[in-house]
């Protein structure tokens, strides 16, 4: 079965959700300083880990209810359920790879009935004070020692969790999706990631919602047209040799 050989890795912020929930979360409780820190991070003046720690330190204490109220306002691509169903029916492994926080990703997914999707992200530790108000400490279980651009190395997760025979499919849109796009066989891109793929000559499929992803994967499956991308294979080989 062709479909068994496909692994699907999906970005969360701006891909599953319409907006960047991480940025909204930090801005909501930490104010403008958090935007400035993200700006410095994007300008490569600080690492992702420094940025997260700075943002966490800038936040006022908050209650779980306040955080949940914010998460409940977040729009999720209404065709995400169709993608999950498609993956189940075709025995495609789907997981979320995010340089955001596991805390809001799990909250948002489980509030919408997607409890069993595997999530790889930075780890939010919520520390309650005597009144039950929370402060945040961020941990980086998937960081890469040799590179500090991201807190959570999507590339390593894809390489570690995909067999050599498997076709790696990646769906993303933003800054932390540029690196994994280089290592994926099939890339679905929009927004900033689309621009990056054009600049870097990475072949990609443009999508606006997961309905486009489902429809494209369906036709690739029907045509038995899943192929490894040569440049991605070379990049993966290089990464393994560098280990
Ligand atoms: Mg994103």
Q: How many structural domains does the protein architecture include?
A: 1
Helix-strand string: EHHHHHEHEEHEHEHEHH
Largest sheet: 7 strands, mixed
Per DSSP, the total helix count is 11
Using the coordinates above, name the CATH class.
Answer: Alpha Beta
Fourth CATH level, the homologous superfamily: HAD superfamily/HAD-like
> Tally of extended strands?
7
Q: What quaternary form is this?
A: single chain
Helix content: 40-55%
Strand content: 15-25%
Please state the average pLDDT score.
95
Q: N-to-C terminal Cα separation, in Å? A: 32 Å
Secondary-structure-based class equals alpha/beta
**Uncertain spans:** none
Overall radius of gyration: 18 Å
Small molecules held by this entry: magnesium ion
Shape: globular
Task: Give the arrangement of secondary structure elements.
Layout: E1 6-10, H1 21-30, H2 32-42, H3 48-58, H4 64-72, H5 80-89, E2 93-101, H6 102-111, E3 118-128, E4 134-139, H7 154-161, E5 167-172, H8 178-183, E6 186-189, H9 191-200, E7 205-206, H10 210-222, H11 230-242
Parallel strand pairs: 1-2, 1-5, 2-3, 5-6, 6-7
Antiparallel strand pairs: 3-4
Helix pairs in contact: 1-2, 2-3, 4-6, 5-10
The structure holds magnesium ion.
Magnesium ion is lined by residues 11, 13-15, 173-174.
């Amino acid at each position: 079965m062709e479909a068994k050989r496909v692994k699907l890795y999906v970005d969360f912020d701006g891909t599953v959700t319409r907006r960047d929930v991480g940025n909204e979360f930090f801005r909501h409780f930490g104010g403008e300083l958090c935007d400035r820190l993200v700006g410095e991070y994007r300008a490569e003046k600080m690492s992702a880990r420094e940025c997260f720690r700075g943002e966490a330190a800038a936040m006022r204490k908050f209650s779980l209810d306040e955080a949940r109220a914010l998460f409940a306002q977040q729009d999720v691509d209404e065709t995400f359920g169709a993608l999950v169903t498609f993956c189940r029916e075709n025995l495609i492994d789907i997981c979320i790879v995010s340089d955001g926080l596991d805390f809001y990703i799990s909250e948002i997914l489980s509030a919408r009935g997607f409890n069993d999707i595997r999530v790889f992200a930075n780890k939010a530790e919520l520390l309650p004070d005597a009144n039950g108000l929370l402060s945040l400490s961020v941990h980086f279980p998937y960081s890469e020692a040799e590179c500090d651009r991201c807190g959570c190395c999507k590339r390593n997760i894809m390489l570690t969790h995909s067999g050599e025979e498997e076709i790696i499919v990646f769906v993303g849109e933003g800054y932390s999706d540029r690196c994994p796009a280089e290592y994926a066989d099939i890339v679905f891109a929009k927004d900033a990631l689309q621009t990056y793929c054009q600049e870097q000559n990475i072949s990609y499929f443009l999508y606006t919602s997961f309905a486009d992803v489902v429809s494209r994967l369906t036709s690739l499956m029907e045509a038995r047209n899943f192929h490894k991308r040569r440049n991605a294979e070379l990049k993966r080989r290089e990464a393994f040799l560098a280990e």
